[in-house]
Amino acid sequence: MADQDAPTIGWLGTGRMGFEMALRLLNSGTSLKVWNRTRAKAEPLAALGATIVDRPADLADCDIVFSIVSSSDVFVEVTLGEDGLFTVEGQRPSLLVDSSTISAEASEQVRQAADKLGCALLAAPVSGSPKVIKSGRLGVVASGPKEAFEQARPYLERFGNTVTYVGENDHARLVKICHNLILGVVTQVLAETTVLAEKAGINRADYLEFINGSVMGSVFSAYKTPGMVNLDFTPTFTGHLLRKDFELGLAAARELDVPLPVSAQVHQKVVDMIGNGLGDEDFSHLLTMAARGAGVELVSEDRDDVTDGLTPPLDDLSQRRP
């Protein structure tokens, strides 16, 4: 049963990530008011007690609002645009916690508007995918006023396995962008070496099993292995989204005079992948592009014994489904 004296919590955005994060809050006993642009995607949460609202403005009476949306433009729209969170006269949350991956400029624009209304903005990007959230292994990095972080921490810890605070300003945005540069670079080198091994006659499953069991293996390499072995490119993170994050990272590097030669080359690989019509599928299609470049025709190995390393979950907070 929810604590009747607890802060009222709103949630903006129930895409692939937002839905699972909101679900974990509901499963932990948190009461939520939820908005999503496509209402039908949010309505399954009503089965667990969420209240679905019609506009972001309908969350203005909440104490804390969490948001996770697809782009900088959407973040500005749902906060400052028509029927946005901050458009209701005399009402505003005391804290907005945003987990979107957006530009520093968009974040600052909303932060300034929030400050004028007396609402703190905490940046809290996350590392993972819907399946990672279900497994209880989501990582959260946060920055903003320390008091705001302490207010949000109990809720962040309900959907995040690790929650790292990196300072008073907007550093969490850059930390997440740096993270996604690693994401792309590691996937590219994993794709290249997997194709090299396959062209020599080595099964992808065997090569990746060795990598995952070595010091070079990681939660990420294990997680991507079934898709690479069985050529399942169901999107967890699309090529278009990865390109956006690479371009945010390269822009930050130019501003700070930091050379990123490897990231710049992988950015071009991602652009090439999108140009070949693969941008709406999972970014692990970098494997497909590496294979084409090597003259290798990929065929699913149809291995149902290859695991992603994420099961069983660390806890049972995600087990109740609407």
Tell me what you see in this structure.
The protein is α/β, with parallel strands linked by helices. It folds into two domains: 9-169, Rossmann fold; 174-294, N-(1-d-carboxylethyl)-l-norvaline Dehydrogenase, domain 2 (Orthogonal Bundle), CATH 1.10.1040. The two termini are 17 Å apart. The chain has twelve helices and nine strands. Helix 7 (171-199) packs across helix 10 (239-256). It is globular, with a radius of gyration of 20 Å.
List the helices and strands and how they pair.
Elements: E1 9-12, H1 16-27, E2 32-35, H2 39-42, E3 51-52, E4 64-67, H3 72-80, E5 95-98, H4 104-117, E6 120-123, E7 126-127, H5 130-135, E8 139-142, H6 146-159, E9 162-165, H7 171-199, H8 204-213, H9 219-230, H10 239-256, H11 261-275, H12 286-294
Parallel strand pairs: 1-2, 1-4, 2-3, 4-5, 5-6, 8-9
Antiparallel strand pairs: 7-8
